[in-house]
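User: Predict the structure for this protein chain, please.
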Amino acid sequence: MTALDHLIYGILWLGFGAVHSILAGAPAKRRLAPLVGGKYRLLYNLFAALHIALVLYGGQAFLAERAAAFAWPPEMAAILSGVRWAGLAILLGSLTQYDLGRFGGWTQFKADLRHQPAVEDEPLHLGGIHRYVRHPLYAGAYLFLWGGAGDAFGLATAIWGSVYLAIGTHFEERRLLRLHGAAYADYRAAVPALLPWKGRAL
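Assistant: Here is the predicted structure, written as structure tokens:
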């Protein structure tokens, strides 16, 4: 991949991150929620999934052919495979900690169809894997991305995906502080964001 290829792919990732963060913010919700009601979170997640699929498809279709394969020794290839599987296991394990209907927006969508009161966002999770890290989904995503760095395109995906995750973590922290206030501030002081080295939640 040339420097221009990396720039194009980086712009695609940063565009996804910008749109994702804007739509997750309170100002966008205030403007759009009256138009879509309780369907907001479901539509937000569907749009995000479509957008990231287009980023990955665009990169794969237009840039991957020019990506050189790395001559990793078998040991390194095995390590990368293990890292990717560990990331996938953490991602799937983390999802079990959530009410997936509410997390994905389906519960809010059904309540809106039935003209029931609005369903609140997910509560602050302090149990399970959240006792060790505040953002286990992001931790799993980092491992999954870097475990796929088996060629130049996979490495570019890991780099730009990590930039997105770092920015996303910053905005997610601000959102959680607004939503949960002192409870999240205390939790953040006790538990690290991604690496479980600091202890458990109080």
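The CA atoms of residues 27 and 33 lie 10 Å apart.
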